Amino acid sequence: MDLIKFIEEQAEKKAFPKFKAGDTLTVHYKIIEGVKERVQQFQGVVLQRRGAGANETFTIRKISNGVGVERIIPLISPSIDKIEVNKVGVVRRSKIFYLRQLTGKKARIKEKKV
Fold first, then answer.
1. Which of 30, 51, 59, 82 could make an SS bond with 47 (beta carbons 3.0 to 4.6 A apart)?
2. What is the pTM of this model?
3. pLDDT tens, residue by residue, 7-54
4. 3-state per-residue secondary structure call for 17-57
5. Strands, sheet with 67-74, edge to edge from the N-terminal-most edge strand
6. What is the rounded CA–CA span in Å between residue 76 and residue 12?
7. What is d(CA 32, CA 16) in angstroms, rounded to the nearest whole number?
8. Rg, C-alpha atoms of the chain
9. Closest to 57 measured CA to CA, from 73, 71, 45, 80
10. Plot region of 25 (φ>0 → left; ψ -120 to 50 → alpha; else → beta)
C-alpha cells in the first residue's frame, strides 16, 4: 500500500497537462541504450485514456510512412520526460477507435478554438 502512495506522490510532482481523447500530444520519452540515454519525441492523437491512479495509461496514434503506429504509455512512468498538448480536439466519445479505419482528410479531428 505504501508503494502505491509513493508512486502517486511522484506523479503529482511531475504534473502533466490535462488532456483527453482527440487531443494531439507530443510525448518526450527517455530511451536508454546501454549507458547512453536520449529523449525521443512521439507525436500523435490520443485514442483513449484508461485506468486510474498509478495504473492509468493512454493510447496515442500517429501515421508513420503510411503505416499507423500506436503506443500505449503509462501516465506515471519515469521514462516520460514531458508531455506537450499541441491541439485540443473536439470529439464526442472518450474512446475514438473509429479513427483506425479512416485515412487522409477523413481522419482529421476538429480543433477547439482556445
1. 59
2. 0.80
3. 667 666 667 888 999 999 999 999 999 999 999 999 999 999 999 887
4. CCCCCCCEEEEEEEEEECCEEEEEEEEEEEEEEECCHHHCE
5. 67-74, 57-64, 36-50, 24-33, 80-87
6. 9
7. 22
8. 15
9. 73
10. beta
